Amino acid sequence: MQSPSEEPEFKIDLSRCTNDWDARTKLRRGLWQALVRPLYLLIPGRLPGLRIAILRLFGARIGRHCNIQAGVTILMPWQLELGDRVALARQVEVLNFAPVRIGSMTVVSQRAHLCTGTHDVGDPHFRLLSKPIRIEPECWVASGAFVGPGVTLGRGCVVGANSVVTKDMPAWKVCAGNPCRPLKDREVRSGASEAP
């Protein structure tokens, strides 16, 4: 390993990496991260209504009959909008520097990652960039999937487990892979579900 005096000149200077957040956003983030979020994460699984109430208190728009399980982390609640009957499973991570909108009747399974932020890799100060994520109604984002900045999942889209989604995916398709791509049509049977 080189000593500090022998290090080459750096092209990246993180000491000048900044964000464009206004004072109100910085204050809200500070209150959420330092005071409320630690308590929110301690709420036991049997009290999803309390989790939803706290998120709403911090500006999240959450529809009726949603299920946000224990261990779901949300960076900025005021940037989150859920339709009716949305389920976020354990350890889902929502890094929402920009808005994340999830339509009704959608499931986001355990350890899925919705990330609206990235960095300008050509910027010497590694500036943060963010673009919203939109998940249309009736989608399923399976376990461990990553959905990146600016992505829209069309209505009824399924994203397979551990997929990496960096581009929009079409409606009513089953999509998977790294990079994620459409594989086949999603056909939903009509009528009531029957137990096997």
Layout of helices and strands, plus pairs?
Layout: H1 23-40, H2 48-57, E1 61-62, E2 67-68, E3 73-74, E4 80-82, E5 87-88, E6 93-95, E7 100-102, E8 107-108, E9 113-115, E10 117-119, E11 128-130, E12 133-135, E13 140-141, E14 146-147, E15 152-153, E16 158-159, E17 164-165, E18 173-177, E19 180-185
Parallel strand pairs: 1-4, 2-5, 3-6, 4-7, 5-8, 6-9, 7-12, 8-13, 9-14, 12-15, 13-16, 14-17, 16-18
Antiparallel strand pairs: 10-11, 18-19
Question: What's the level 1 CATH class?
Answer: Mainly Beta
How many domain modules? 1
* Helix and strand pattern: HHEEEEEEEEEEEEEEEEEEE
**Structure annotation, total helices:** 2
Largest sheet: 7 strands, mixed
The end-to-end span amounts to: 61 Å
Q: Give the percentage of residues in beta strands.
A: 25-35%
CA-based shape: globular
Q: Portion of residues in helices?
A: 10-25%
| Fourth-tier CATH superfamily name | Hexapeptide repeat proteins
Q: What's the β-strand tally?
A: 19
Q: State the CATH architecture.
A: 3 Solenoid
Task: Briefly note the structural class of the backbone.
Answer: alpha/beta
Poorly predicted runs: none
Q: Please, what is the average pLDDT?
A: 92
Task: Report the CATH topology name.
Answer: UDP N-Acetylglucosamine Acyltransferase, domain 1
What do you see in this structure?
This protein is α/β, with parallel strands linked by helices and 196 residues long. The protein has one domain: 3 Solenoid (UDP N-Acetylglucosamine Acyltransferase, domain 1), CATH 2.160.10. It has helices at 23-40, 48-57; strands at 61-62, 67-68, 73-74, 80-82, 87-88, 93-95, 100-102, 107-108, 113-115, 117-119, 128-130, 133-135, 140-141, 146-147, 152-153, 158-159, 164-165, 173-177, 180-185. The strands form four sheets. It has a seven-stranded mixed sheet with strand order 2-5-8-13-16-18-19. A five-stranded parallel sheet has the order 1-4-7-12-15, covered by helices on one side. A hairpin with a 2-residue loop joins β18 and β19 (180-185). The radius of gyration is 19 Å and the shape is globular. 28% of the residues are buried. The model has no long low-confidence stretch (mean pLDDT 92).
